[in-house]
C-alpha cells in the first residue's frame, strides 16, 4: 500500500484517510468514560483516525475527548479523521440527514470526514434502534438503498460530510450503488469484518478493481462481546501460526494481524481501551512482513465470521441447517412478508432437492431476488451464497451462526 509520511491513503474522491483507525465501539457493560479516556490516549499516541457510529452511543464521549485534545493543542480539528455511520432505522432518504445532524450535535462538529451506511439492512424508523415485534423479532423496513445513497450524496453536497461510503456491503450491494443511474459519487470505502480467519480476498479484489478501499474491522478478532460473538469460536490472537510469525519479527500477534491488512492495501481499525496496547499498536508502521509470511497468513483463512449483526429469523436459519424439518414457521410480523416469501421459495427448493443439493442455492437466491415481489435493490436480509454449506450435510449446530448471514 502506498501511504504518505502521515500514514494516509488517497481515496477515490481525492480526500485522504489515515491507514489505521481507532475503534470506539464499547460493549454496554463497559463504562462510556473508558471510551472517552481511550480516545484521548489514542490521539496522544499519534492516531488521527477515529471510527465511531450513531448506534455506539459513545459519540458524546468521543467528541469530548477530541475537543479536549484540540483545546490542549495536541491536534487541530482538521488533523482528525472522524467516521460516523448511518443507523439502520434512518435509511429512508428523508431521515438520512437527521441521523447525521444528531451525530454532529453530539460530537459538536460542523462536519464529518466520512459518513457510511452502517449495514445494508433497513429497520423500522423510530426512536428504538432495534425495533422488535411482540415475538422479539426485528422489524425490518423496505428501503431502496440507492435512494439512501442519494441522500448521502446530498449530505456531501451540503458540506456536512467530506466523504461517503458504506459498511458490510457485499459485491452485489456495491454493484447496486455503482450501477445506479445518475450516480454522483462512488463510495470511497467499504468497512467490513476482515482478519486472517476471514480475509475477504474476493471482495478485496473487487473493491480494488473499482477504486474503493476496503476497511477492516474485527481485525484483531473482535472484542468477543458475549452479546454478538459465539464464545466457542477460536481466539484469533491465540493462533499458533500468527504467534510463530510474531515471534520471528519480535512483535505481538496483534501487530502482525494489523500489519497484514496494511500490506494488502486495507485500511485497518483496532479497538483498545488499554494505554499500553494503544501505544504498542502504533508500532504497526515500524516493520514489514515478508511475502512468504503474508502468504502463510493468507492460508489461515477459514471464512470464519465473528460478528453476526442481524441474523435471519431463527426458524429460517434452523430450517436451512436442518432441511429435514417440514413445519413452516408462522410467526413472522407483517413487516417481514418479504422474508416470508423468501422462506416459501427456499423451503420449496429444499423439498425438491431432498434437502441435499445446497450447491444450487446461489442460483436459487438469484432467482428469488429477480422476482418482482422481492425487488433486487431492497435491503431484505438474504443468505450469502458463500456461507451456505456446499455439501449435502447440514452444518453442525456449532456452525450455525457462521453459516447464516444477514445479507
Ligand atoms: N461497521 C461495523 O459494522 C463494525 C462492526 C464492528 C466493529 N466496527 C469498528 O471496528 C472497531 C474495532 O473492531 P472491534 O471493536 O470488533 O475489535 P478488534 O479491534 O478486533 O479487537 C479489540 C480487542 O483486541 C484487544 N487488543 C487491542 N490491541 C491489542 C494488542 N496490542 N494486544 C492484544 N490485544 C489487543 C482489545 O482489548 P483491550 O481493549 O482490553 O485493550 C479488544 O478486546 C470497533 O471498535 C468499531 O469502531 C465496525
UniProtKB/TrEMBL annotation:
InterPro entries: AKR, AKR1C, Aldo/ket_reductase_CS, NAD(P)_OxRdtase_dom_sf, NADP_OxRdtase_dom. SUPFAM superfamilies: NAD(P)-linked oxidoreductase. Residues 376-407 are annotated as: Disordered. It holds the Pfam family Aldo_ket_red. One of its GO terms (molecular function) is oxidoreductase activity. Residues 376-398 have a biased composition (Low complexity). Gene3D superfamilies: NADP-dependent oxidoreductase domain. Residues 20-301 form the NADP-dependent oxidoreductase domain. PANTHER family: ALDO/KETO REDUCTASE (PTHR11732). Belongs to the aldo/keto reductase family. This is NADP-dependent oxidoreductase domain-containing protein. It comes from Chelydra serpentina (Snapping turtle).
Amino acid at each position: 500500500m502506498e501511504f504518505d509520511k502521515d500514514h494516509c491513503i488517497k481515496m477515490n474522491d481525492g480526500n485522504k484517510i489515515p491507514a489505521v483507525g481507532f475503534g470506539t465501539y464499547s460493549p454496554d457493560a463497559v463504562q462510556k468514560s473508558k471510551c472517552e479516556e481511550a480516545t484521548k490516549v489514542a490521539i496522544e499516541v499519534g492516531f488521527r483516525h477515529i471510527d465511531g457510529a450513531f448506534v455506539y452511543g459513545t459519540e458524546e464521549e468521543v467528541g469530548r475527548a477530541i475537543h479536549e485534545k484540540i483545546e490542549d493543542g495536541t491536534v487541530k480539528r482538521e488533523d482528525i479523521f472522524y467516521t460516523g455511520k448511518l443507523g439502520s432505522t434512518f435509511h429512508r432518504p428523508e431521515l438520512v440527514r437527521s441521523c447525521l445532524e444528531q451525530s454532529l450535535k453530539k460530537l459538536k462538529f460542523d462536519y464529518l470526514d466520512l459518513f457510511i451506511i452502517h449495514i445494508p439492512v433497513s429497520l423500522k424508523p423510530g426512536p428504538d434502534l432495534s425495533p422488535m415485534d411482540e415475538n422479539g423479532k426485528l422489524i425490518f423496513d423496505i428501503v431502496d438503498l440507492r435512494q439512501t445513497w442519494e441522500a448521502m450524496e446530498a449530505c456531501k453536497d451540503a458540506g456536512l460530510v467530506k466523504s461517503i461510503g458504506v459498511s458490510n456491503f457485499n459485491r452485489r450491494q456495491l454493484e447496486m450503488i455503482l450501477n445506479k443511474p445518475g450516480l454522483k459519487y462512488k463510495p470511497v470505502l467499504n468497512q467490513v469484518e476482515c482478519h486472517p480467519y476471514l480475509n475477504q480476498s474476493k471482495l478485496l479484489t473487487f473493491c480494488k478493481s473499482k477504486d474503493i478501499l476496503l476497511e477492516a474491522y474485527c481485525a484483531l478478532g473482535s472484542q468477543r462481546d458475549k452479546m454478538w460473538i459465539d464464545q466457542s469460536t477460536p481466539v484469533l490472537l491465540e493462533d499458533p501460526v500468527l504467534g510463530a510469525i510474531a515471534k520471528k519479527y519480535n512483535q505481538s500477534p496483534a501487530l502482525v494481524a494489523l500489519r497484514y491488512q496494511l500490506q494488502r492495501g486495507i485500511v485497518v481499525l483496532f479497538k483498545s481501551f488499554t494505554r499500553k496496547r494503544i501505544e504498542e499498536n502504533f508500532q504497526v508502521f515500524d516493520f514489514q512482513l515478508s511475502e512468504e509470511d503474508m502468504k502463510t497468513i493468507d492460508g489461515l483463512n477459514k471464512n470464519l465470521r465473528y460478528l453476526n449483526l442481524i441474523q435471519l429469523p431463527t426458524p429460517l436459519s434452523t430450517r436451512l441447517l436442518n432441511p429435514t424439518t417440514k413445519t413452516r414457521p408462522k410467526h413472522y410480523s407483517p413487516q417481514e412478508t418479504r422474508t416470508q416469501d423468501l422462506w416459501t421459495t427456499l423451503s420449496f427448493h429444499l423439498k425438491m432437492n431432498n434437502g441435499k443439493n445446497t450447491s444450487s442455492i446461489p442460483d436459487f437466491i438469484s432467482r428469488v431476488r429477480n422476482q418482482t415481489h422481492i425487488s433486487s435493490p431492497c435491503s431484505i436480509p438474504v443468505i450469502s451464497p458463500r456461507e451456505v454449506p456446499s455439501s449435502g450435510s447440514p452444518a453442525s449446530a456449532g456452525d450455525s451462526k457462521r453459516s447464516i448471514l444477514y445479507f
